[in-house]
# Entry
Amino acid sequence: MTHRILAIPGDGIGAEVMPHVLRVLDALGMDLSVESGTLGGVAIEEHGTPLPTSTLDAAREADAVLLGAVGGPKWDNLPMDRRPEKGLLGLRAALDAFANLRPAMLFESLANASSLRPELVAGLDILIVRELTGGIYFGEPRGIESANGRRRGYNTDVYADGEIERIARVAFDLAGKRGGRLTSVDKANVLEVTQLWRDVVTEVHADFPNIELNHVYVDNAAMQLVRAPKQFDVIVTGNLFGDILSDAAAMLTGSLGMLPSASLNAKGQGIYEPVHGSAPDIAGRNVANPLATILSAAMMLRYSLGEETAADRIEAAVNAVLERGIRTADIMPADSDADVCQVGTDEMADAVIAAL
Ligand code: NAD
# Structure
């Protein structure tokens, strides 16, 4: 079966890295049909909108979307609704990509890049599943109001049982494909909305008897993440807690240039993109680390295309390259005696392809 992929390079280093990622996919020798789409700043220039209809239509038709990054100083002063980032948010909303998957994985050879002691993080492999389309970021009513010369700001944290159930099912399912353990994070001792979260996750657990489930309050989860992160397998949580915990977990692994992500909908379609942005400060200089986007392509193969073996091959190739001491600038060790060699974007991608 041919898998249909929409590749969207986007802006800055996104445009620089995407051709290399497509070369990596090509090297797998699989039956892939790759179409190209525009989004973000480049789409504003070419079509006058950050999310052209042609891109949206192609994304709906595709099995998966592979995205570089969007944004840049050139478009920073445009009105909010015409900014490059609006294109990305619009794409996620149009595909109803409610499940955000953020792995925090640390390759053994990069353990000394973490802010934690190497023995705490070497071999770290956590998957954070964040609900992406609900909760306090979207809840109504919201606003800032003024009365009698005083101002009052408010938001609403709201989840319907159906929204919790669908993200819980995704997380249980993923736990089943990994270590079989799921931690649900809430603040059920204070917030009713997260008491409902805990109740619904517990109900869904009945359908996944082989998965070990535990519940942790968010304050404790934050503490445990920096104390003993390897205790976690899959973590599922709402939009706000997930935003914060996934960034904290990400930083355990050292560099933005290594971090992939996925946003999935109920049909298994997904948008796969690095966690980093378009990095205008280094764009066009052959210094960007392409591994976050290459690892996003591996996630795409695993989660939307069902090609587990191909995903494993990419991850093994990245591991082999790192083991050989090949590094882009962002993951160079501070210790100048280390036996490593600094390369550019092109050479890093070449090394991954050679390892494949
Ligand atoms: P950024 O992630 O682009 O860059 C932050 C820092 O990390 C920079 O110093 C950059 O050089 C470095 N960096 C990022 N990726 C790297 C890589 N692959 N290799 C080596 N170094 C890397 O974040 P920012 O500077 O806050 O934002 C720049 C632009 O990107 C803005 O327009 C922002 O809105 C946009 N942005 C887009 C996305 C997205 O497309 N999903 C996400 C975040 C930011």
About this structure: The chain has two domains: 1-98+265-356, 108-255. The chain has a mean pLDDT of 95. Residues 1-98+265-356 form a domain with the Isopropylmalate Dehydrogenase fold (CATH 3.40.718.10).
